[in-house]
Write a structure and sequence with these properties.
Rossmann fold, 9 helices, alpha/beta
Amino acid sequence: MTHAHRHHPHPDETEVADTLDLDARVFGSHLDDLTGWLRRHAPAQPRRIADVGAGTGAGSLALARRFTTAEIVAVDRSPVMLDRLRAAARRQGLGGRLRAVQADLDAAWPPIGAVDVVWAASSMHHLAAPDRVLRDIHAAMNPGGLLAVVEMHTLPRFLPDDIGVGRPGLETRCHEAAARAGWNAHPDWGRHMERAGFEPIARRAFTVEGDPATPDARRYAHTFLGRLRSALDGHLASDDLDALDHLLNGDHPGTALNRRDLIVRGGRTVWAARRP
């Protein structure tokens, strides 16, 4: 899942790719449930599935494992992401069924052929004109095809309410500040899909929770909290910023990298719609 088409400028796409890979390892367990649910709504034998905003390929590879006879077309604007995706596909023995296509959907829909399923995970809300892209998807899709749009319904959570420093509720206040700044803002995609000519058929939430946190989860927590600390400087009280610094700096037991009381919590919402 990626900010693949209209992501905010970032000085190092390799760092973004590393974060996406961490996200997949920490929250990827929901993909088996989600693609299994999707399989029940998809055409019986889809021949071509497009992953729109494929990033480093967690969704593409999950789709390839679930739909074992389909060609998977992974679309992303970033060559760094697509190189990472191709390598992961080769390692998993899926390279022969996965085609990576570099394209900017804000410019045009790529000439990938007719599709039976389109998957767009955490990518649609980064597009400049998502309604136009939904119409493009509708035009490219075979009748009876399925569109699935996936978004985070909450930012990832890791911390206990009381981390032992500062006031309880630090993570909640960080998320509230991030929401005010527009993080993870997205519409109810069902209405947009319907306007593009699709028939909405289902909406479902999937949650992930894991305890205790793995080393990957602690690294992901450290990375995500670091992003919050950088972005919310000036938007949080000084004691909350100090508490974030405590979580991020040094090698003491209270840092995110060393804590043993982290709990991974997150979730995704999927909207599914059919092309008549």
